[in-house]
Amino acid sequence: MTEPVTTQRREFRLPDVGEGLTEADIVTWRVKPGDTVTINQIIVDIETAKAVVELPSPYAGVVAALLVPEGQTVDVGTPIIAVDVPGAAPEPGGPAAAGHGGGGRDHTDPAAIAAEGPRPSSEDLVPPVPPPAERQAVLVGYGVKAGATTRRPRKAPAGISSVADPGVAPPRANGSAGGHPSVLAKPPVRKLARELGVDLGGLAGTGPGGSITRDDVQHAAQTPAAQVAQAPSGLTEERIPIRGVRKHTAAAVAESARRAPHVTEFLQVDVQATVEAVRRLRELPDFAGVRVSPLLLVARALMIAVARHPMINSTWDEDAQEIVVKHYVNLGIAAATERGLIVPTVKGADALGLPALARALADLADTARAGRASPADLSGGTITITNVGVFGVDAGTPIITPPEAAILAFGQIKDAPWVVDGQLAVRKVTTLSLSFDHRIVDGDLGSAVLRDIGAMLHDPAVMLAWG
Fold first, then answer.
1. Residue 141 resides in a domain
2. Is 438 considered catalytic here?
């Protein structure tokens, strides 16, 4: 007679996925109670202060319970899912399911494993399971008070409980915004649908493979039926929770504006030659299959300006009372997404040739639009470009991305009257705006940087001479 396989319930705690994370939002569960999961299978999408991150399972087994509903903000270290793991010894003091096998080893505590010594020989009869201590070596935050939450869950649709039942997946009502797990839509799109009150199940996707895009959701939200559903009679206000990326961005720009004395300078530039250079680059074999835009030459011009004026690429160390000059450039590109403003970075941008920089910028844009930027992609920047021209805007006064010293805004390129060789002509013109931290960058340095960038965009051949 075959003996039943013993199991032990394991709780997976929200890990710190980098950058000292303290909390995150549960965006979308990919599993439900009763599902069988494998090690490293993606089980949940979480939204941190910087990005939507996919979390893999550290266990192989059967999902026993989802401990936190979608929309909840939880602290690092909070148990979010319970999995019944076959052939595992119980954790000391941990919950044991009925009929689960005995044992006393804590797989989540390497120190406890070392102190306990080798396994009893009887466990050699159980199919080996990779020890969670090895799988979770990079997951920190264990030991933070369990079950703590920092906010109330989002208000659930009528008829749906907002409290997690330890043995039941958070229910999805037909027609509830963001529901319908079978619908093809990325987590940020589902989140947008929830916020706008749009039923994904009733939409026809226009994205790849019939997936639903952000534009599909926004179009549906603008239809009369959707507007009636979102705006009951007499509604004059709407409250939107401040969380995730928007919360981080709000704190960062407020801190930047408070701590760094901002100065912004503007320069109008005739970029007729840049527009022509972009057209010619698109025809070269080295740029085949790569999107080439004027932003590429703006980025290259900034790299050369940084090399000529290193102080523009620095930070202010308040504690040490030092200016830290960075002799490398991690170029940030501000990107507006459905989750808010993010600034992914091209690491070592100054060391890239023009074709490699073009590919890096294209990959960056694709990653940001798809909501796949990781915390590593969004950290470590040394200087930033914000392309406000894509919104049809001429100029602005951008706020510095802390702790950087400067940010360059690139306005729209448009036809404008311009004096050329004493004659009035219609030329391609743009406006550059450079905001800088006046503690580090004085007016002379800021003007020199802006003037150099303008000179290179006016005549791209200058890049060859200076770069």
1. no
2. yes
